[in-house]
Amino acid sequence: MKTRHPFNVKPAKPDYYFDLGFSTFNDEHTYIKARDIKNAWLKLVKHHHPDKKRPGEDGDAAEFRRVHEAYDCLRDEHSRALYDAEYPRIRFDWLCYRKLASEEQDAARHEIEASEVANARQEEATREAERLKELRDRWKRDETNRQWEFVAKCNRRNVEELAEEQARVVRERQARERLEDAARRLRELQEEVYRERLWRQDQEQQRQAWEEMRLKADRKIRELKARLLVEREEREFERARRDEERRREERERRQWQVWVEESERRIRQYEQSYRGAPEQFLGAQEMERESTQTDTGRSTPSVTAQQAPFYCRHPLTGWSVRFGRAECFFCGRVKGWLSWTRQCPKCDGRACLKCKAYYIADIMKRRYRRYRSGGHW
């Protein structure tokens, strides 16, 4: 029993490009412009319009509606983009369907031609049978005449000659019948072998065609799946990278905000406690060191070495590296004995590496904003 192949079913979604006459459209190498689509639509509408038919002829309404439907879908950019996204699958289904339909039409045409050839052969066989029948009848008549002649001869011959003649005639007739039967069987066997060979060749060609079509479809499906997988992985990687970048920027922004707020708080605290001291902070550490080394009656300055870093305009360069226990004058954290810090060359205040980097970045940002607003660098 002949099974129905899935591609024999007409695809549900129409091939709009094929309906507008673009039979060679390829989604990987050709992009049809909207102007060409409109020109093709106008040409087909004029050709299939019901008013163009002669009186008495029916208008091709189905073709007219199909052309309108294809143009309505392709002239809109959004609907066309959605349609083009799945057009490779639609085009593949329609190509398979048209190929199978063409093969079925060819098979039907071959079947009709084979039927006509069989009818012609049957007629030829009928004529040959009639001719053989006529020859047989003629032979019978001749045989009857020969028998009558034989009877006449028998009247002149003896009984032994009559028996021998009858036996010879029977042997010749039997041999002739055997030869004819053998020739007929040989001819039928040859025809059967030839038909079997043709049938096997046709089956092998169909099997190879189906196998090639299946392999091609599987290859396209695998390529499409691989391309979709790579695109999805790239999108996921890009999304993860952007999320990580956004989280990192948010984390740095929060850390920077916390550092700025803490520094401003400590600066305001010392400013409230020691107002008027900024004019005396220069040389505060040297004065304190001299006061501790000598026992003179010099009075202690109002700005100590611990207070000087909060009133010093720390330079961007020249910070020396120090190792040991120290307190960061920005964040107030006390570093351990096995920690590295930076020391200001003007006020000898120490800062941790992160706070020093934040301070340099803040100064550069302020200078850049002042420069953009028209001030000096």
From TrEMBL:
Keywords: Coiled coil. It comes from the Eukaryota. The keyword Coiled coil applies. This is J domain-containing protein. Residues 115-254 form a coiled coil. Signal peptide: none annotated. InterPro entries: DnaJ_domain (IPR001623), DnaJ_domain_CS (IPR018253), J_dom_sf (IPR036869). Residues 15-87 form the J domain. The keyword Coiled coil applies. PROSITE patterns: DNAJ_1, DNAJ_2.
